[in-house]
């Protein structure tokens, strides 16, 4: 879709407002709305001005003027606004029209341009599986006189004895995978989400209830190129959250909102193509993978400790990344082991569908940064021929839980905390700087923002500490 098409849609659909959307460094979307009569060719050529100092990770107040440049190919009609509104995703530029280097979408676009410059492939495709919870209530507070959180769901196993109207069919702990109605009470809501996603341009493949209790779900949409998939993921989250709100529920992509049950991940499928030729397939290889694919895996696993600072960037991420909850904490690759950081799908896979699945990430990641970083790690593995078999990353097709302690000790693990991951990123980020995709300023800003998160969490008194220490 180009500028002229968008302008014709505004006229034909009698659009009243155009909503221009940008994303901050952390991955939160922001928007500014303009009456449709004020939007013309000049808007697309000159952009929309905004204050960059008010966005997390952007400019300071003395140099705050910035411009959002609309990308007409991202336009879609917003189903949640009463006045007919067209939403458009924007790139961010400086007042002199040069790209702003901290713009996450700009980083994703530079990663795609760098891929083509290397001559290794013409396109990288990404397909995230973003899990979420739909709660009926969420309350939390943190202050000098106390801190707490409380969540609730009509599906939750802890409500089996709830008084009042209680119709049973609660989801058991770790018992939520694929149950039919009435145990799965959210099918109609997910159907509505999928319908709106399809109307907005996403190609929905399937949806289902997930493993955890209390309303965990998953909706899969078709893969696309790197930047387009990141755009689609933000659109996906927008629709999930707003449909949930419409039904009096609240959606969260937080990795570990429930103690003692599975968390929500974002398994990311990825592959490289040269034109129409898939580069990850080779019949007869391990899981029918090519050497190119194995080197790509080598890059992902070699740089995984640093990558995880971008793919799992919350302190809560590391409450999910613990053994025993299907968590991919083991830095190995496997064609069947779901506790491996990299899994190779083999069921019903054609040559063009041959891909690798990085299972460690979660949806607190900024998708533009996370996908770009994964691509850069994989390309580094290809360029340096980092063979994961020679580097001790597998393949490991045995049940890890059946291994001896000595065998388990040989397996490399993902970082155990956000601080460990940030330290790894400080020490290992040269691969991200290739082709000026990332720069040191972006990485330093990211690390500073995330260390501020850690400091806030560490300095807040935890209710569990009262249980452990109050009577000592």
From TrEMBL:
It comes from the Bacteria. One of its GO terms (molecular function) is glutamine synthetase activity. Its main location: cytoplasm. Transmembrane segments: none annotated. Mg(2+) binds at residues 129, 131, 210, 218, 267, 357. ATP binds at residues 205, 221-223, 269-271, 338, 352. Residues 104-472 form the GS catalytic domain. Belongs to the glutamine synthetase family. This is Glutamine synthetase. GO terms for biological process: glutamine biosynthetic process; nitrogen utilization. GO terms for cellular component: cytoplasm; membrane. The modification O-AMP-tyrosine is found at residue 401. Its cofactor is Mg(2+). Residues 13-97 form the GS beta-grasp domain. It holds the Pfam family Gln-synt_N. Oligomer of 12 subunits arranged in the form of two hexagons. Keywords: ATP-binding, Cytoplasm, Ligase, Magnesium, Metal-binding, Nucleotide-binding, Phosphoprotein. It is found in: Cytoplasm. L-glutamate binds at residues 262-263, 320, 326, 338, 359. Binds 2 Mg(2+) ions per subunit. Its EC number is 6.3.1.2.
């Amino acid at each position: 879709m180009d500028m002229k098409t968008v302008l014709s849609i505004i006229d034909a659909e009698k659009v009243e407002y155009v909503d221009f959307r940008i994303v901050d460094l952390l991955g939160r979307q922001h928007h500014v709305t303009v009456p449709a009569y004020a939007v013309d060719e000049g808007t697309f050529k000159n952009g929309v001005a905004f204050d960059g100092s008010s966005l997390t990770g952007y400019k300071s107040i003395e140099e705050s003027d910035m411009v959002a440049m609309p990308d007409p190919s991202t336009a879609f009609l917003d189903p949640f606004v009463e006045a007919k509104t067209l939403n458009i995703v924007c790139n961010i530029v400086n007042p002199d029209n040069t790209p702003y280097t901290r713009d996450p979408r700009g980083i994703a676009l530079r990663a795609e341009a760098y891929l083509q410059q290397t001559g290794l492939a013409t396109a990288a495709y990404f397909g995230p599986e973003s899990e979420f919870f739909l709660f009926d209530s969420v309350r939390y507070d943190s202050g000098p006189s106390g801190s707490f959180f409380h969540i609730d769901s009509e599906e939750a196993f802890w409500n089996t004895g709830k008084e009042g109207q209680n119709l049973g069919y609660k989801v058991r702990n770790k018992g939520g995978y694929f149950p039919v109605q009435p145990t799965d009470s959210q099918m109609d809501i997910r159907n509505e989400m999928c319908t709106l996603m399809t109307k907005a341009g996403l190609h929905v493949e399937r949806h289902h209830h997930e493993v955890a209790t209390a309303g965990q779900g998953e909706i899969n949409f078709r893969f696309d190129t790197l930047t387009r998939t990141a755009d689609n993921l933000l659109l996906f989250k927008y629709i999930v959250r707003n449909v949930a709100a419409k039904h009096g529920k609240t959606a969260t992509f937080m990795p570990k909102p429930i103690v003692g049950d599975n968390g929500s991940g974002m398994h990311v499928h990825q592959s490289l193509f040269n034109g129409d030729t898939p580069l990850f397939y080779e019949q007869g290889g391990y899981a029918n993978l090519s050497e190119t694919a194995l080197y790509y895996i080598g890059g992902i696993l070699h740089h995984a400790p640093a990558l995880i600072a971008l793919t799992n960037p919350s302190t809560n991420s590391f409450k999910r990344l613990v053994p025993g909850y299907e968590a991919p904490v083991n830095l190995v690759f496997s064609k069947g082991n779901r506790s491996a950081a990299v899994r190779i799908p083999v069921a019903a896979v054609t040559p063009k569908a041959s891909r690798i699945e990085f299972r460690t990430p979660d949806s607190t990641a900024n998708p533009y940064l996370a996908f770009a970083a994964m691509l850069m790690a994989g390309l580094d593995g290809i360029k340096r021929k980092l063979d994961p078999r020679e580097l001790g990353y597998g393949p490991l097709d045995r049940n890890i839980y059946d291994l001896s302690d000595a065998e388990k000790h040989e397996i490399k693990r993902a970082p155990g905390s956000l601080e460990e991951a940030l330290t790894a990123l400080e020490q290992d980020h040269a691969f991200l700087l290739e082709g000026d995709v990332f720069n040191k300023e972006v990485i330093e800003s990211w690390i500073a923002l995330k260390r501020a998160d850690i400091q806030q969490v560490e300095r807040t008194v935890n209710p569990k500490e009262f249980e452990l220490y109050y009577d000592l």
